[in-house]
Design brief:
By secondary structure, the chain is an all-alpha fold. It has one domain. The radius of gyration is 14 Å and the shape is elongated.
């Protein structure tokens, strides 16, 4: 576990939705998308807390945005 926070109780349907969403990332070739999938699966399997999951998600989406901006600038 990444931290010492207590893993909050989530309903089965919420965990199922998270797992289903993570499964939709399977055809992505981007490293960040793969890490998001892993983080979502860890959260849905109660291996990490909600805070750590959201922190990972924010970090990885920020990296993706920065890379997209850099790629856009290089194409200009």
């Amino acid at each position: 576990m990444k931290c010492n926070n207590i893993v909050e109780h989530l309903s089965y349907s919420t965990l199922h939705k998270i797992k289903k969403s993570a499964a939709e990332f399977k055809h992505s070739d981007k490293e960040e998308m793969h890490k998001i999938k892993i983080s979502a699966l860890q959260f849905s399997n109660k291996k990490i807390c909600k805070h750590c999951y959201l922190e990972d998600l924010a970090y990885l989406t920020t990296i993706m945005r920065i890379k997209a901006i850099q790629q856009e600038k290089s194409l200009s």
